[in-house]
Amino acid sequence: MTTAAVPRGNGEEAGPDGRSPRSVLGKVGLILSAFGDGDLALSLTELTARTGVAKATVHRLCQDLVACEMLERDGSDYRLGLLLYAIGLRAPRQRTLRHAARPALENLAQALDSPVSLSVPNGSELLCIDNAGRHRNRAGASIGGRLLQLHSTAPGKLTLALLPEQYPLARLAPHMRRMTARTLTADRLPGELVRIQGQGYATDCEEHRLGYSAVAVPVRGPRDGAYLGALSVVAPTARQNVPRTLAALRTASEAVTTRLSVIEAYRTEP
Questions:
Q1: Looking at the domain assignment, is residue 102 inside a domain?
Q2: What does the buried/exposed string (b/e) look like for 233-255 if buried means 16 or more CB atoms within 10 Å of the residue's CB?
Q3: Which CATH number covers residue 167?
Q4: Structural domain boundaries, residue 17
Q5: Are residues 158 and 177 part of one domain?
Q6: 101-131 confidence digits (pLDDT tens)
Q7: Which residues does UniProt call coiled coil (predicted)?
């Protein structure tokens, strides 16, 4: 669920919560977050429309961001710079979890001959931070750095079910889009989330993409059992064996938690 800035009629600009960011940093945040998953580059006009910030201000800030390598020029357009990618890789929560999960992702993708993804809660969104594998039919895992749909994917529904306070349905409902004829509607989703809470895993049977199904299980912290993210496998519906996939996912999830415990113990040694 990606939320854009909301322009105000008085010429001020508003963020996702409807309030105007008056600081330069707030406006920079709107500019950088205006880039969506499918945007290779955006024009000055597009950035102005998406942020609600005055065009002259957007132009000035974009020039500054290019100078510090957070944006790059693409002709007359702008694209995200590699420096942002490098900074993102240094985020400790993501880096530690990716490091702990990487062997499990690779082993799982090979064992099931299917793409595997690791996604984590990020504010009001769900972010894929790592993936492995590609099935011979060319179905791929979610690309690292991509935001996932919360209501139509297995990891998204799992996150909604396990973090209801962070992801209230009232806020999600207006943004729900039917991806396929099987995508759950707003009136059916609450019952699905109750079922997920009870069984401890989530499935997506062609709710996000026709012909493909997915299974997701939680990855939990080693000390408090907190929900850290979702480990998921996607495969063609015709060959998706849910019991087998679920068993393999749970084993992999437990392996990730064990590795996290070892990493934490190593870091706390005198």
A1: yes
A2: bbbeeeebeeeebbebbeebbeb
A3: 3.30.450.40
A4: 6-86
A5: yes
A6: 999 999 999 999 999 999 999 877 898 999 9
A7: none
